[in-house]
Here is the input.
Amino acid sequence: MHDGPVPVAILREGSCLVASIHAALDDTQMARFRRELSEAIGDRRARGVLIDVAALDVLDSYACRTIRDLAEMARLRGARAVVVGIQPDLALAMVRLGVETEAIPTALDLEEGLAALVDGRVSSVLVPAAPRRATWKRREGRR
Here is the structure.
């Protein structure tokens, strides 16, 4: 078990928290980060949370699920969450791992994520996307 600091900074920006992950986290560190962020939302009465993963170039399936769960946990604690800074290779890995990402609000970077939270462009209710259809159906009236 790691007793040292988790390489994540949780900072306050107005009524929002910015949680920047600076290095890959092992499972124990990821669980600790999840707990610390959940506590910080309540302690600091945050209305929004930005989870910045820009420094990460790899995530395993547990870390992907944990980030998804963090967004849902923030919602349950009364805050809107946005994951920002997902690099192209990381996005591809999440898709290939089959991580359910439809309900995760995302933004390109911290600036866009914060603007989305402040402007209210992020729904506080995460609604899962409808299941994808395996077949294509032609619309009636079209040829």
